[in-house]
Amino acid sequence: MTRLAVVSLALLLAACSDGPATSTEASGTDPGTSNTPQTTGATDDLAPTGTTTSTAGDPTTTGPGDPVTTATTGTTDDLVTTGDPLTGTTTTADTDTTTEPPPEPICTDPPACGDVEATATEHRLELLDGCAFALKPNNFAAGIARADALLARAGTAVTIDDVLGQLNREGVPGLSAYQADRMKNHDYTGFRWNDGDGAVNYWYPQGITGSSDARADGKVSGRRLLLVSWYHKIDREPTDPPARGVRLSLVDITDLDAIRYRHLLLVTPTGDGPDVNFAAANTSSGNALHAGGIVWLGDRLYVASTSAGFRVYDMSRIFETTASDDDTKIGISGGEVNAHTYRYAVPEIGRYSLTDESCPLRFSAVALDRTADPPVFVTAEYMTDLTGRLARWPVDLDSSELVTNGGTVFARDAALAGQSRIQGAVTHEGVYYMSCSSQASQWGRLYRNLPGSMSEITAWPDGPEDLYVERDLKLIWTAAEHPNKRVNVGIPMQGY
Fold this sequence. Notes:
Layout lengths: L8 H7 L7 E4 L10 E4 L85 E3 L5 E4 L2 H15 L5 H5 L4 E2 L1 E2 L3 H6 L6 E4 L2 H5 L3 E8 H4 L10 E8 L13 E7 L7 E11 L6 E4 L13 E4 L2 E6 L3 E6 L4 E2 L9 E4 L2 E4 L4 E11 L10 E5 L6 E5 L8 E8 L4 E2 L6 E2 L2 E4 L5 E7 L2 E10 L2 E7 L6 E7 L1 E7 L4 E6 L7 E5 L4
Parallel strand pairs: 11-19
Antiparallel strand pairs: 1-2, 3-25, 4-19, 4-24, 5-11, 6-7, 7-32, 8-9, 9-10, 10-11, 11-12, 13-14, 14-15, 15-19, 16-19, 17-18, 20-21, 21-22, 22-23, 22-25, 26-27, 27-28, 28-29, 30-31, 31-32
């Protein structure tokens, strides 16, 4: 297995010319709680095109803690140290303005897929060849044009500041006694949703991101913000209407004693030109997109699409609905703009999907590492055994786009995690963090590791999901998913 180390004259000339399988993902269940599996195939994530016929005019839808000790055996929870073995190479481009710089080395001899599904050792993280995994963007220019046409037809474009001025729900400071007892050995911070959102059994929180991902200075409009994704969980029969997709909670955590938030709906533009419309963020099977992980970068929101890659939404193209009293309606019809009662909607503008040549990979979660060189998105696979893998995808912070090579995004590297039920993962300053459910009875654990090493363990709540790093405060956050146990909790990062 070789990689191209030196760019030959032939490759330079070629560069200047024109020239996956069905998977099943559980949402992270613990013994004695509801099981929320999602089965999707690659066809569930086909991007909308200009020839799509809109059907969104007026459809109906239904909707105890472990001790604080260092461990390498997976039997106790906690402690600290640092390390940074990840020293990726960087390439300096030719600055000659008259000649295109040669491309960076590309993956010319990807490994066999069996080589990236190796036998795992529990609690041991082993690096894999990232060349096995590749994504390709669809036509973002067309997607942006369609979103703009949708905003023009709706006539109600708003800014993020407009939405922040209309936060209509209050969170509850602190954790529930049940979850606080688990986290008692940590200097935790956090909050709960209001009673209705904390108990609802058909919306489940999954992904988490925030202003520290979105902006270099960690603030949006001068505020500390969180975004949390929820998927619409319904038990469907073949004759049932489709689900209501994915909603976002935009949360102002600037003052943790005065939490305010609002829900927005993610939507998929359909049709084209004067007929452009929108539908919920569902798969072709009628289920909601699982949205197991999210990253807010610049104005773009990346949402994990389990069997395919990412759907990308634009936080600078939010629009307001004009009617919000009928929860069965979505789309523009009869002079009304409906989004299942939600006042604000966020449109999709594009997708990154696994290439035909890529090995299969699940996108159960995603997080941003701004400390890596280059910066990366970290994705994780939820598996009930130890075969779950992580992959890290290079991203350009200025453009908020994944970095392509010849039109393809290759994973910078990958890893066999050696942990089961990974609900979220991130790297930060060289250390891998993995949020895993059902590790000590119903309780989750946050594992910390370095490549080739054995994990250290931190107590983590019941039902933990995706991970988010708030850099300036050195906090690592997760959202817990189960009804009546829901908390959003952050603890100080501990390193390895």
